[in-house]
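Posting this for the archive.
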Amino acid sequence: MYFFVLVFLYFYQRNLLYHPNENNYSGDKILVDIKKVKIPTSDNIELLGWYHEKNLRNYKTLIYFHGNAGSLENRIHKLNHFQDMNINFLIIAWRGFSGNKGKPTEQGLYEDGKSAINWLVKKGIDEKNLILYGESLGTGVATYLAQNKNYAGIILETPFTSMVDAAKKFYPYIPVSLLLKDKFENYKNIKNINSPLLVMHGEADQIVPFSMGKKIYEIANEPKYSYFTKYDNHMMEYDEKLVIALKSFLRGLN
């Protein structure tokens, strides 16, 4: 029976990791002007993106990499706060999400993230004016792409040390280090990042333990900043305190 469980988990694992059809959208209306765009990847997939251009010359541009569940609409309550910040932004939906073709994998998501960056660079945006924002699973993409680069800043919301570590929390009796295909090793990538970093995490997180976010912050290079809260769960509350922390970090970027 244990053997059959292992076989099932090995072949079904990506269905357990990626949840494109999960929805916690509560009907928020988008208050910031966005343009729906299509971003091509090198393997011939078109990604849906929402793009907000305020002023490319004077303001930095933020790329938002979302987590492992839901559509772009699930992030509207966050994006609405960006209208009060002096930034342009692009949020993309991963392959297999929000109607995009393809199936999500670690390498596939890295390609999606690279494609979003290339799309912005072709618009004339210098990499030194880009900010990578990773949410949960998206932190794995952000840290991977930020290695040995000179980005304006990196924001990690509820980051994990690695997907192996996170999976062990839910499957303690399974050899996940041997079975897991998509490992997203943040703890390795973070050591190769020298861009200004903001780590945000809540102590009440029931999905990614707070200790992981704290560890990522501790092993990260300077300059680094943290926004740690006592009561936030995995979906952090985008309240006044968090928004102030975001604005403060963005204002401090060169």
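The chain has one domain: 2-18+48-251. The two ends are 57 Å apart (CA to CA).
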